[in-house]
Design a protein that fits this description.
The protein has about 260 residues and is an alpha+beta fold. It is built from three helices and 15 strands. The strands form three sheets. It has a six-stranded mixed β-sheet, covered by helices on one side. A hairpin with a 2-residue loop joins strand 10 and strand 11. The longest helix has 18 residues. The protein starts with 7 loop residues before the first strand and ends with a helix.
């Protein structure tokens, strides 16, 4: 599953004379060597756009972003989804973390309150406005995920706006002022017209597309008939022991773990 490896130590300041790994992004794509998909050994970056990330096996990881979409010879900018199954899980976990820092830094060059220039704040992962002092932290968007059980059956759905048309668990973003559990009840009713109870926490995962935090639950069916919201769900149905269980093309998401752990 996509996650930061235990060997990674977050840092806000780069140690002196440390060997460095640079994660350089153009929008949502990471600069890698063609062929072996490794980070470039030497890369020219604007020092004002470099952010310390942390230590990984004795090497300091730093992240930067560029507006130049032209990669150096022998290199290419590659989207993170294209790296599923092509690079090690530890590297992918750190790259996902690096992207979220890079995108936050790129989109917070100017203050959202007064439009003044922003700069890194001392002692924390934040950007501070030099004019009004407004602080901006990396954006994290929490989203619930739930797999509904009804005896030996499981409810799965095809999300209308997903780039992959496959059956999976229900999911949706939290609204302001809402608890995760409240979001589960609301999203389930809005998307498929059912009511659930006996919610049980399953696990969570940072999901850098672009800055989600997935919080997964199981729940038991209470009542209702399936009535889908076509704007959200293209199809939803119950899967039992005799039905063909959906297969996911990768195992990096918490959705794949949730489905595997709750197969009829």
């Amino acid at each position: 599953m996509l996650q930061t490896p235990a060997s990674f130590v977050p840092m806000l300041r780069a140690p002196e004379n440390a060997e460095r790994l640079t994660f350089l992004f153009h929008r949502d794509r990471l600069l890698l060597r063609e062929g072996n998909l490794t980070l470039p050994e030497h890369v020219q970056v604007d020092a004002a756009r470099v952010h310390p990330l942390g230590d990984w096996n004795g090497r300091h990881c730093q992240v930067a972003w560029t507006e130049d979409e032209q990669a150096p010879p022998g290199h290419a900018f590659v989207g993170l989804r294209a790296l599923f199954g092509a690079v090690g899980d530890d590297f992918l976990g750190i790259a996902g973390r690096a992207f979220q820092v890079a995108e936050w830094a790129r989109t917070h060059r100017f203050c959202g309150a007064c439009a003044g220039p922003m700069a890194r704040a001392e002692g924390e992962r934040a950007m501070r406005c030099s004019a009004c002092g407004h602080l901006a932290y990396p954006r994290i968007s929490p989203a619930m995920m739930v797999l509904i059980r009804k005896g030996g059956q499981r409810l799965l759905a095809c999300h209308a706006n997903s780039p992959y048309k496959r059956f999976t668990a229900l999911a949706g973003f939290l609204e302001a002022g809402e608890s995760i559990e409240e979001a589960v009840h609301r999203e389930v009713f809005e998307e498929v017209g059912l009511r659930v109870h006996k919610l049980q926490y399953f696990g969570s995962q940072s999901w850098p597309f672009p800055h989600s935090l997935m919080i997964a639950y199981t729940a038991e069916y209470l009542d209702g008939e399936i009535v889908t919201d076509p704007n959200e769900i293209s199809e939803a149905r119950w899967f039992g022991p005799g039905d063909e269980w959906p297969t996911l093309s990768h195992t990096v998401s918490i959705a794949s773990e949730l489905l595997a752990a709750n197969r009829p």
